[in-house]
């Protein structure tokens, strides 16, 4: 069992690199870092990692992007928007999330070289 809902923005500043890379269970060529795993564990957000990883296989607009910025924006009513940008501020994918209990109002990840990572780990 994971310790969810104890995630804060300040927690994320401790991640400036990764000693371990984890392989995604469904999309085996996608890796993720210590910081990403921390967010998934503490924020109950393995679903978010799944969204990013599965897009690498099934979303044509995303597949062609070498560098991606993924942003989850959570609304007060617990709906959210997940957006993938190309790194130049252009959205290539936007997905509405009908419900989430993710504890932060917003979080960003990078995806590059088949790896999901926090911006501070780049």
- As residue ranges, the low-confidence spans are none
SS content category: alpha+beta
**Sequence of secondary-structure elements:** EEHHHEEEEE
Tell me the number of structural domains.
1
> How many DSSP-defined strands?
7
Estimated helix fraction: 10-25%
Under CATH, the topology is which?
Nuclear Transport Factor 2, Chain: A
- Tell me about the largest β-sheet: 7 strands, mixed
Instruction: Please work out how many helical segments DSSP would assign.
Output: 3
Radius of gyration (CA) equals: 13 Å
- What does the average pLDDT come to? 94
**First and last CA, distance:** 29 Å
Q: In percent terms, what proportion of residues is strand?
A: 25-35%
How does CATH name the architecture? Roll
Query: Class in CATH?
Result: Alpha Beta
Shape: globular
